[in-house]
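User: Structure tokens for this complex, please. No commentary.
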Amino acid sequence: MVPTKKEGRAKDEEVIKKLEGLGQDMLEQIKAKSTPTFTTALRSKGNIIYDQGIGYIRLGDKTEERRFVNVGQARKFMQTVAIASKCKKFLNEDAHTSIRGLFYQLKFSLGENLDEELFSEQSESNPLVEDLEVALNVKREDLNLNTDRKGVVAGPLVLRDKFGGTEDEIDCTRQGRSGWMIPSDVDNGMEFKSVDADYVLVVEKDAMWQRLNEDKYWKKENCILITPKGQASRGCRRLIRKLASKKLPVYVFTDCDAWGWYIYWAIKTGSMNLAYLGQDIATPEARFVGVTMRDIKDYDFLAQLTIKAKEVDIKRAEEMLSYEWILHHKDWVEELKTVLKTKRKLEQDALQGPRLSFVGDYLKEKIAKKKFLA
Amino acid sequence: MVTSTEKIFTEFKEHSVAEFFKKNQQMLGFSGKTRSLTTIVHEYVTNSLDACEEASLLPEVTIAITELDKDTGKYRVVAEDNGPGIPEKHIGKALGMMLAGTKFHRYAQQRGQQGIGASGCTMYAQITTGKPVKVVSRYDTKRITCELSIDLKSNSPKIMNAVKEDGNFGNGIRVEAEVGDVKFDKSSFGVYEYIRRTALANPHLSITLIDPEGQKSSFPRSSDSVPEKPMMVQPHPMGLSTNDLIDFAHREKECRRVSSFLQERFARVSAAKVDELRALVPDLDFDKKPSDLQWHEAEKLVKAIQNPQVKWIAPTTDSVKPIGKEQIEKSLRNILAPEFVVVTERSPKIFKGGIPFMVEAALAYGGGAGRANGSMTGSEVIRYANRAPLLFDNSGCAITEAVKEIDWKRYKLKNFEEEPISVFVNISSVYVPYTSAGKQAISNEDEILQEIKNAIMEAARDLQRYLSGVNRDHDRKERKKAILRYVQQLSKDLPELAGKGKSAEIEKMLVHLIETKYSGQIENGEDEEESTNGKNGKVEEEEDIDE
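Assistant:
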């Protein structure tokens, strides 16, 4: 079983130690005349578990040994070690790069006589980075590997950002119309100075975030307003998790369709692709605030604003209904069934129907009355 | 058609043999320019081989072919051997009289049984260039040099300019013939291929070809043992056709009655058997002279012989003389230098209820095996009857058919046509059932076809085992190579990662580790290991845009 990770950031020195340990174990194996190996958790579907007890998707206990002296694995093994070695260097130099940057650092010929590159495609390096993350029980951000930034924050949140040799204070109440963009790593060199909010509101769409920001919704409601701009990135999910850990309730506001539901459930339970990070990025406490088909009962005008459900929405609804765990969420079952019956869906933008700022009233009311989909 | 010889003989009574020859060139192998030349070489080489066998000598044969005139296809063929030579008084008969060979009326397994051989060449030379053949025969401290042609009307030899010398000249014969309307080429029907194949089936033969371009191709012998002399055997009644029976009966001089003729001249015929036949053919007088036997009577007699009620003891199989497993293997290795050779050794079988035959099959794979086809090498089927290569009438032959019917994929040969393989099949029998007088294809008798198939498949099983081994070996090497190429990079990164260790040392240890593992000693476990590396932690389902 992969040891349970200490939540939050791993210190650089710890990570470097882990990396060296990995290499030293391999050296010992070679000296003992056996193939160098390392063990990583199996990340295939068979080892991905939705743990109802803890409320998120995580990896099971199955592990897999990677061996160098094995035709199917030799290249990948060599590549993984190259990545590990490179990451150690980044950590020592306190330099960050993207996975793409890493790829270019490692894209060189294996030798004069070999018509082969260490890496020839970035898609090759991505799963190996994951291997390394799982094997060392660290996140890629801990290895100084960044991903693209996505997601924006506004609200009473002050952070300290140590980066590139300087330290900056970021006040998310003072980010104007654009907000603070969530970096890929919100752990290393990043600290909450103050979190003085009553809740966290995650809205699916950037346009909706801009609407609420303009209305100073976060100020009126004393909440932290986040948009992942669609599917939430690792950094965004990690930030939501960290805020939830500060005992802030998390409400999610998305479209009532396949995409919206998916964004919500990914934030809440994590996702299969990132099952190995489940504990760090899932926020089982998150609640779904809307928009829902049952809202039509309370807001008549919405009845006129439904649109035809797409095939993907129908399929997704059917698929979700087939999950065993969804049966524990009776409201959701009813919601999904309504979509299947009416073949209609609702977008969060529809709440701007009566007037642009109506959406704020809607959210306030729903949150106050705790009208969530359970 | 097993009766071609006799047919020729019977018809010979009405025509001059020479005239018959002229009309039936095709039947005798003189059709097509390339084939005619091959036939000529075949006749001389066969004569040399047979003569050396008789005299228990290791044959050494040289064939030299010179182009004289391209337009008319005129060539000079010189065939020389180290055989016993031909005594002066027999030279004419041997080389200048059709159907006068020493072999014609013998019933034993021999290469050619036509007796038209070398005389046919003399005739051919005469017809196409008008020139006599030049003969030098050395034997018993004598040397005879002469020119020889055939009197076409009387089928008698004409010897000219004979010179007889005494002295120690060794022994052997040299025949020089100028022939027209022929062509030398390196096709699979050509002289070169004929000689190569003859050498393959006659490991005791050393043969050299000097072609019109002056290029010398030598096929040295791989065995020093001269094949045993073929045994004379009595024919078994089950192998008789009406034609055969008439032929034998009419030549019978000693036996006075059909009944005694049957008992004396044929194998496994007892007085009791003759009585059985008598009962089946009541209107035939078994006391009449064999020479008076009429066609319709012979026909009834043959029918009675083949009547299933009459149970014959099978003939002895001693008469069948194969080349021998070891000999074939030696020879194939010697000439083809293949990667792998397998030869089957099977017991003689019977066809048509009474004729013994034996199939030898060999497969040579890789190396020089197969037929070069441009830059590619493809498969070839090398057919023999009593060691004589069959170059023509490929499609009608039981051997070709057998090879075609085999599912080669079962034996690890994915595309038979494109594999570097030589399929060698020799059929030995006193009576090889040819499809025609040209003697270039074996007829599709059920028993023969099946036996050829069995023999080849038996060999193919061994080849399959070999190829699986090769594949395994190849795989192992490939695996080793595939891993070794990453050693250097890993050895460079590991010390950096571990913060200790030396690249050079690590590299050395890793190379040693891999060399040991893929040296072939550890075979089990390896496959097991390979199979566990299927999935690499990839998530197959649910699209997710994390970044």
